[in-house]
Structures are given as structure tokens and as C-alpha cells.
Automatic annotation (TrEMBL):
Pfam families: DHHA1, tRNA-synt_2c, tRNA_SAD. Binds 1 zinc ion per subunit. The gene is alaS. Belongs to the class-II aminoacyl-tRNA synthetase family. It is an enzyme of class 6 (ligase). GO terms for cellular component: cytoplasm. Keywords: Aminoacyl-tRNA synthetase, ATP-binding, Cytoplasm, Ligase, Metal-binding, Nucleotide-binding, Protein biosynthesis, RNA-binding, tRNA-binding, Zinc. Its EC number is 6.1.1.7. GO terms for molecular function: alanine-tRNA ligase activity; aminoacyl-tRNA deacylase activity; ATP binding; tRNA binding; zinc ion binding. The lineage of its organism: Bacteria, Pseudomonadati, Bacteroidota, Flavobacteriia, Flavobacteriales. It is found in: Cytoplasm. The keyword Translocase does not apply. This is Alanine--tRNA ligase. GO terms for biological process: alanyl-tRNA aminoacylation. Catalyzes the attachment of alanine to tRNA(Ala) in a two-step reaction: alanine is first activated by ATP to form Ala-AMP and then transferred to the acceptor end of tRNA(Ala). Also edits incorrectly charged Ser-tRNA(Ala) and Gly-tRNA(Ala) via its editing domain.
Length: 891
């Protein structure tokens, strides 16, 4: 063999090294070989983008390897290199790509997975991509060629798309033609979403069955037929088109390659396993679950215990990476999705592994050992990830315990109604309002010989989905491009600008019809980095439109306006709402000063974990594991205000290399994806990477005031604060309140006067309590003699004006002293209807207080509950006490 160049020599040596491979490769070795191979092919190896997307309105999470390169395919940004490779963290739990419900039920679906990929941005195309894939799989990894099949796009006449003959011809030089399969549009035409880059693709499938199984049925018949051992391992996408909103296709300016290989499936193939969960990607986690649960994993598909273990080890990966990348569990948006995944894992372990204490957090250290080398965020954020998961486990386990009580009440009521079916509305309310899993309600019901109204429950779920869809439904039309002009953001330097509309599109949602416009010179800041998007006015000589919001999408600054100009090509004048912008940028600048002050007071472990910056207030989330003391809050506040008073001028480094910014001491938001060039904002010793708008001098902030400090999540504290005009307004209102208090108290020493009032109130309260007790003592004797004999049982129905506390004390005393009795007290204390029911212990099995009070509460338009021996209910209809009294007499 003659080596013609140093480059060829380098790869020849590399091949020889790989051919000396052992029989078994660990997952870490498999991942590294992929990256090393493409590095030898002159690809730039880049780190994974965060799994959570901060500033992309079209996606919550990275759901494929190409997500971080979307702008390159669309031509909005220039790629850092023409050829790139990486391993990307992906999450498929929402929208079009949602694998959540399949996880655990089979051997290969996952919420979080790794996508190994190589990309070409206008460089190589089908021939090279196919050759790389074949060489890597068969020569580097040593997969037998007879185990592989490939598919090519067969064409689609409805879209005038021809068969991908080029891909077929290129494959013929590597694999026999009888292993090249035609695939339809569903399988072999890849699309990013409803619109965006797309093109034909060529999938590589691997047959992992035994020789005996292969002899019975050809792998050709099983490709793309959901066979667990004949699976797609790599997809080579050839980006040629852009799908428009009207569903038409247009050619992209350049041809690109986007490939994605499922890392977990590749490990299954190379490690000779029949399940992803049998590879060393998951076995260390499974071993830890076995240790903590005392249950043995057997790998049986239908075994609920094994399903639960698969769910747990899959979900802990997804949740850990999401938290490490900055997404905390919450009740909305991406945070809700993460909470749902975590609660699904807790629910499965509670039901099928018998684990009723927090334990998932103990899996984080195992995950760190497995993946920390390639994903250092797991190591850096490990303590936070662990604390957040443990806190969520504690909270949800309490939800389950409380839900069990509610389920028991629902079962008792169902049985009392002589029904065998739990009503769907109540089961859905348990799930939707209280977070209690519907599956767990079903299991408990079945144990008691009952069922749930499955069709009704599904109908309720569908109603909720439809409501959510209607709330978020939006129809977006295609862009109408006007005269080609450069599109710039000028808002860092000016609030107003002469401009042109370069493109516009119509948007329809539940609020009506609007238009999105892109401007040649836009002073409107697009929502990002925690700061809200600008509002303002867009006007020309004859028309004026309100700018309702501004966002960034695919590199474009898009402003939403309330109509379409008659002459969209005219010269326009864009004006930002100056007061709101000034207040917003004051609040944004103060978050930088606040971050620095928190690190000085609390320690360098403090990291920003989220923020909101608007004209009225700011919110700043940061990592810290204890509630801040009043002294610490005061010190932080004083430090920020001192920096404001020092009149520190803004130093802005608008476009510097990211390494230079870090060398200067800049801090960045962890989990944020930064480019090669960044913007650095400096106020004295405070240096941060930031794209937001800021004051030119700290003196413009005016004054900083912390309004509240609270917990945002485990290990995350939240400060809400105000500055500028709002801070001034705060102190004016405070001064006004003090003056009014002084006038009411007829004293200038407000504090001393209030202390005196508190003392007097405490003394009077003691006197009132004593009088109530005396009155209650007097009532007990009368009530004892008022019981009526009903057969062999005694009933008391009594009206009173006594408060709830006194009534409770008396009822508890009576139910002990009066055997075989039911006591019903109807109170109108403070003009609020209250019903209290007590049942003596010897009757509590047959005459449950909770059922009685629930029936009577209907008359006062209220509700309540308790236990079989004691229950209370409040309501809204005071007049309804009379009807409740009459109904109670019939008990």
C-alpha cells in the first residue's frame, strides 16, 4: 500500500488501531470511537447543546441531533465549520415526537437518548455520507455486513418527488441490491416539523436475531415493522428542501447532510444484547435500583416490576440532564413536562417496586460516573440535581398519601351509592387537581372489587387536551418577502429608527388575526435572556400600528402588529415604548449587580438559575440551599445600592471571542448555548455574557429594593425586587401608609401605638375565650337533654351561634358521653354557615360522619369532610341552614 499524503497516513494508522479491537466495547468506548472516526475525517467535534431550549419558541427541548444546527440549514447563521460531528442529548416527551407512554413497555423507546451525528453544511452530500456510515459500522465497529439492510426514498407522486436514485446507486457499491429497500414518505422523507428543512433519507437497519430465526423469516420482511430485534440504527438525511406553511416545497440554497444514530441501539448491537436495557448504558442504574428496592430485574417485557425498573432508569436520565441544563420541575411549560416524567417514575416505583420513600435521588451519583466524562454538567450541577429530585420525591409521595385518603372517601361514597364504578369526573379530578395517578386509582379500585369509568375518564382527558390545544392553537402563514434588505437590531443604541418591512406573515389565534413583521432596522428588543420583548409603535405617513410583542425565531427579530399596512413597502418609523424599556433595562442591569452581591455575601457557589426582567419588577433565581437571613438580605441590598451610587459606567464588549470574554473574568449562564462570539456586559467588577439591554450608567437605576425572598425549588432561592420608578413608587406608598396610620392612631410614634393595641387585643381575646368556654359549658347540659330516641339510637339536631372551635369541643365530648348517638350541629357564627357531625364510636361503621355532612352540605352550597366519627362542612348559603336542619331530622 502506498501512502500518498500525511492525511492518508494518519487515517491508515487510525484504521489499524481500530482493527485491533476487543470482542466487547463499553458504551464509553463506542461513543469515543464515533467521535474519533469523524475527527479523522476532518469534522469539528462540538459539545452537545443543552437539552432544554431557552430561546426557541417552536420547541421546548432538543428532540433531535440537528436542533442546534437548525439556523445553519435555514441559512440564518454561518456554521462554525463545514463539517461537524457530536453526540447530542435529546428528549422526546412532547409535541410531534413523544415517546413517553412507550417507555418501559418495550426494549428500545426512551425519553432521553443520545443521538450520534455527523453534519455537512454545503460540503459533502449523499455519496460521502453513505460511505462514512458504511465504513464506520462495518470496518470500525465490525458489524457483519450480512446483518445490515438499508432503505431509500421511493418517491411520492402527490408532491412530484422522484425516487432517490442517487442514494440507491451509491449504496450499490457497498451492499447487495437485494438488501436495498424502497421506503415510503412516512419512513424515508424526514421533516423537522410542520415547516422547515426536510429531504429524503436513507435508513440503516440491523438484524440482531439468531441464525435460526433468520433462517425462518428474512430480515427484509421485518424492516420498519416494529420488530424489537430488527431495528433502525442510523438515519442519513439529505436536506434539499424547505417545507413552507402552505405545505409546498422549495429548494434550499445549499444541500446538507444531517445524520442521526441512536447511541443506545448501537450499544445494543455492538454488545450483543437484545434490549437497550441490557447494555452498560443502563445496567449500572438497574443494579442500583435492585439494591435499593430488593427486587431482581429479569428483563421480562410484560412483568410490571421490570417495566417499573425500565421506567425508573430511563426517566432518571431525562430528569437529571434537564435539571443540570437549568430546567427545574414546575407547574407549567417545560418544567411541567419534567415534573410529569419524574412523577411517572415515582408512581411506577411506588406501585410495582413497593418503594414509598425517596430513592431516585440516589441514582444521580451512578449516572455521574457513567456519563460525567462526556457531559461535565452532571458533575458540576450534581448537588443541585440531587436536591431537586429528592424534594420532588418528598412532595409527590405526600401527594400520593393524601390522594389515598381521597380515593378511600370516593370508594366509600361509591359503595354507599351501591355502585361498582368510580365516577369519571371524581377520578379525573384526583388526577388533574391533586396530581394523583389515574393508574393508581384503578389498581386500588380493583383491589376493592370496583372499576373506574374508563370511557368517561378518557373523555375528560380528551376535553382537557382540546382546551389546551384551543388555548395554544395558532395558524402561521408563509412569509411574504418584500425588497431584499439587510436586517439589523439597532436597539442597543436607539429607541427609534427609520426602517422598512423586509417580510411579513399572517398569524391567526384565539385572540384574532395579527401580522408578524421583520424590519430592516429594528429597535425592538426580542424576548430573551429573561427580558421581555419590547412593545411600541410602527407608523408611516398615513398609518400607525401597535407593536404588541417582539420575539426571536430562527435568527429573525419578529414584531407582532395589530394589522397589515396598506403599503407594506413604505418607509416606516419604529418607536419603542421608552418608559417601559428604560425600566426593563434598569431591572436587567440590576440583576447583574445582584448576582455579584449574592456571590460576595453567600459564597461563590451561587449561580443564576433563571430570571424574569420586565418594566415593573425583576425576579432572580439562584442556587443556594438555605433561606436567606434578614441580615444577609440587607447586606445584599446595601451592596447593590452602593454600586448604583458609585455611578459605574457600562463597558460593553459587543462582539468578542468567547474565550477572550472568559479570560476577562466573564460568567455565563450554565445550560446556555453560546456562539464563538459573544457580548459581554461589564459594570466595574461585574462581568457577564448577556444579550439584553442595559443602562449606560448604574446611576440610572435609581434605587434597588428587595420585595421578597422565597424558595423556587429544592436548592433554588428566588428574589423578587424593584428598581427605578417602581422603587420610588414603593417608598411613596409606604410613606403614605405611615401617615395614614399615624392619623388613625393619633400618634407620631406608630410602632409604640401598635404595640399597645396588640397588648389590649391579646387581653380582650383572653376574656372572650373565657366567656365562650363558660357559654359552652352552659350549652352542654341543655344539649344532653335534647337528644331524641330514634329506634334504639339517639339523634341531636341543634342550631347555635357558637364558633367552630367551641362546637367541636362540645361534639367530641357528647359523642363520648352519649352512646349510640349521632350529633348534628348547625352554626351561623359570624354569618357563615357551618355544619358539624359527630358519630359515637359504636355507630361509626354504619353511620359515617363524612357521608352525612357531605349530604347536608349541599343545602348550604358547600363541602367538607373528615373521618367516620367526626366531620365538618362550610358553605356559602346561610339561608340553607334551615333546609339542612329539616333534612338532618330524617337521618
Amino acid at each position: 500500500m502506498i501512502i500518498k499524503s500525511a492525511k492518508n497516513l494518519k487515517f491508515a494508522c487510525y484504521q489499524n488501531l481500530l482493527k485491533s479491537k476487543t470482542l466487547y466495547m463499553t458504551s464509553q468506548e463506542i461513543r469515543q470511537k464515533f467521535l474519533d472516526y469523524f475527527k479523522s475525517k476532518d469534522h469539528l467535534i462540538v459539545p452537545s447543546a443543552p437539552i432544554v431550549l431557552k430561546d426557541d419558541p417552536t420547541l421546548m427541548f432538543s428532540n433531535s441531533g440537528m436542533t442546534q444546527f437548525k439556523d445553519f440549514f435555514l441559512g440564518y447563521k454561518t456554521p462554525t465549520a463545514p463539517k461537524i460531528a457530536d453526540t447530542q442529548k435529546c428528549l422526546r416527551v412532547s409535541g410531534k415526537h413523544n415517546d413517553l407512554d412507550d417507555v418501559g413497555r418495550d426494549t428500545y423507546h426512551h425519553t432521553m437518548f443520545e443521538m450520534l451525528g455527523n453534519w455537512s453544511f454545503g460540503d459533502y452530500f449523499k455519496k460521502e455520507a453513505i460511505a462514512f456510515a458504511w465504513e464506520l459500522l462495518t470496518e470500525v465497529y465490525g458489524i457483519p455486513k450480512e446483518n445490515l439492510y438499508v432503505t431509500v426514498f421511493e418517491g411520492d407522486s402527490s408532491e412530484n418527488l422522484e425516487r432517490d436514485q442517487d442514494a440507491y446507486d451509491f449504496w450499490k457499491s457497498h451492499i447487495s441490491e437485494d438488501r436495498i429497500i424502497n421506503g415510503n414518505k412516512k419512513d424515508n422523507f424526514w421533516e423537522m416539523g410542520e415547516s422547515g428543512p426536510c429531504g429524503p433519507c436513507s435508513e440503516i437497519h440491523i438484524d440482531l436475531r439468531t441464525p435460526e430465526e433468520k433462517a425462518k423469516v428474512s430480515g427484509l420482511e421485518l424492516v420498519n415493522n416494529d420488530h424489537p430485534q430488527v431495528v433502525e440504527v442510523w438515519n442519513l438525511v439529505f436536506m434539499e428542501f424547505n417545507r413552507k406553511a402552505d405545505k409546498s416545497l422549495e429548494k434550499l440554497p445549499a444541500q446538507h447532510v444531517d445524520t442521526g444514530m441512536g447511541f443506545e441501539r448501537l450499544c445494543m448491537a455492538l454488545q450483543g444484547k437484545s434490549s437497550n436495557y441490557d447494555t452498560d448504558v443502563f445496567t449500572p442504574l438497574i443494579a442500583k435500583v435492585e439494591e435499593l428496592s430488593g427486587k431482581k430485574y429479569t428483563g421480562i417485557l410484560e412483568d410490571e416490576k421490570d417495566i417499573a425498573i425500565r421506567v425508573v432508569v430511563d426517566h432518571i436520565r431525562a430528569v437529571s440532564f434537564a435539571i443540570a441544563d437549568g430546567q427545574l420541575p414546575s407547574n407549567g411549560g417545560a418544567g411541567y413536562v419534567i415534573r410529569r416524567i419524574l412523577r411517572r417514575a415515582i408512581s411506577y416505583s411506588y406501585r410495582f417496586l413497593g418503594i414509598k420513600e425517596p430513592f431516585l435521588f440516589e441514582l444521580v451519583t451512578v449516572l455521574q460516573k457513567q456519563m460525567g466524562k462526556f457531559f461535565p454538567e452532571l458533575e458540576k450541577q450534581g448537588k443541585l440535581v440531587t436536591e431537586v429530585i429528592k424534594s420532588e420525591e418528598d412532595s409527590f409521595l405526600k401527594t400520593i398519601e393524601n390522594g389515598l385518603i381521597r380515593v378511600e372517601k370516593l370508594i366509600q361514597q361509591t359503595m354507599a351509592d351501591q355502585s361498582k364504578v368510580l365516577p369519571s369526573e371524581e377520578v379525573f379530578e384526583l388526577y388533574d387537581t391533586y396530581g394523583f395517578p389515574g393508574d393508581l386509582t384503578r389498581i386500588i379500585a380493583e383491589e376493592r372489587g370496583l372499576t373506574i369509568d374508563e370511557k368517561g375518564f378518557e373523555a375528560e382527558m380528551e376535553k382537557q387536551k382540546q382546551r389546551s390545544k384551543q388555548d395554544s392553537a395558532q395558524k402561521v402563514y408563509d412569509w411574504v418577502t418584500l425588497e431584499e434588505r439587510e436586517e439589523n437590531f439597532v436597539g442597543y443604541d436607539q429607541f427609534e429608527s427609520e426602517t422598512y418591512i423586509t417580510r411579513y406573515r399572517k398569524v391567526e389565534n384565539k385572540d384574532g388575526e395579527f401580522y408578524q413583521v421583520v424590519l430592516s432596522n429594528s429597535p425592538f428588543y426580542p424576548e430573551g435572556g429573561g427580558q421581555i420583548g419590547d412593545k411600541g409603535i410602527l407608523e408611516n405617513a398615513t398609518e400607525s400600528f401597535e407593536v404588541l410583542d417582539t420575539k426571536k425565531e430562527n435568527g429573525l427579530i419578529i414584531s407582532l402588529i395589530n394589522g397589515l399596512p396598506k403599503d407594506a413597502g413604505a418607509v416606516f418609523y419604529a418607536k419603542v415604548h421608552a418608559t417601559d424599556r428604560k425600566n426593563s433595562q434598569a431591572n436587567h442591569s440590576v440583576t447583574h449587580l445582584l448576582h455579584e452581591a449574592l456571590r460576595e455575601v453567600l459564597g461563590t457557589h451561587v449561580e443564576q438559575k433563571g430570571s424574569f426582567v420586565g418594566p415593573d419588577y425583576l425576579r432572580f433565581d439562584f442556587s443556594h440551599f438555605n433561606k436567606m437571613t434578614e441580615e444577609e438580605l440587607t447586606l445584599v441590598e446595601d451592596k447593590v445600592n452602593q454600586k448604583i451610587k458609585e455611578s459605574i459606567a457600562l463597558q460593553e464588549f459587543r462582539n468578542i471571542p468567547i474565550q477572550e470574554a472568559f479570560d476577562k473574568g466573564a460568567t455565563g449562564l450554565f445550560g446556555e448555548k453560546y456562539g464563538d462570539y459573544v457580548r459581554m456586559i461589564q459594570f466595574g467588577s461585574s462581568k457577564e455574557l448577556c444579550g439584553g439591554t442595559h443602562v449606560k450608567n448604574t446611576i440610572e437605576i435609581g434605587h434597588f429594593k428587595i420585595v421578597s425572598e422565597s424558595s423556587a425549588a429544592a436548592g433554588i432561592r428566588r428574589i423578587e425586587a424593584i428598581s427605578g420608578d417602581k422603587s420610588e413608587e414603593y417608598f411613596k406608598n409606604l410613606e403614605k401608609q405611615i401617615i395614614e396610620l399615624s392619623q388613625l392612631l393619633k400618634s407620631k410614634d406608630v410602632v409604640k401605638s401598635i404595640e399597645k393595641l396588640i397588648e389590649e387585643n391579646t387581653s380582650l381575646k383572653s376574656e372572650v375565650d373565657a366567656l365562650k368556654k363558660e357559654k359552652a359549658k352552659g350549652e352542654i347540659g341543655d344539649w344532653k337533654s335534647a337528644y331524641e330516641l330514634k329506634g334504639d339510637k339517639q339523634l341531636l339536631v341543634k342550631k347555635t351561634s357558637l364558633d367552630a372551635g367551641s362546637v367541636k369541643d362540645i361534639v367530641f365530648q357528647l359523642k363520648k358521653e352519649i352512646p349510640t348517638s349521632v350529633t348534628i350541629i348547625l352554626s351561623n357564627a359570624d354569618d357563615k354557615p357551618m355544619i358539624t357531625v359527630g358519630v359515637s364510636d359504636d355507630l361509626a361503621t354504619n353511620y359515617q360522619a363524612g357521608n352525612i355532612v357531605k349530604e347536608l352540605a349541599k343545602e348550604i352550597q358547600g363541602g367538607g369532610g373528615g373521618n367516620p366519627g367526626f366531620a365538618t362542612a362550610g358553605g356559602k348559603n346561610l339561608a340553607g341552614l334551615e333546609n339542612a336542619y329539616e333534612k338532618a331530622l330524617t337521618i
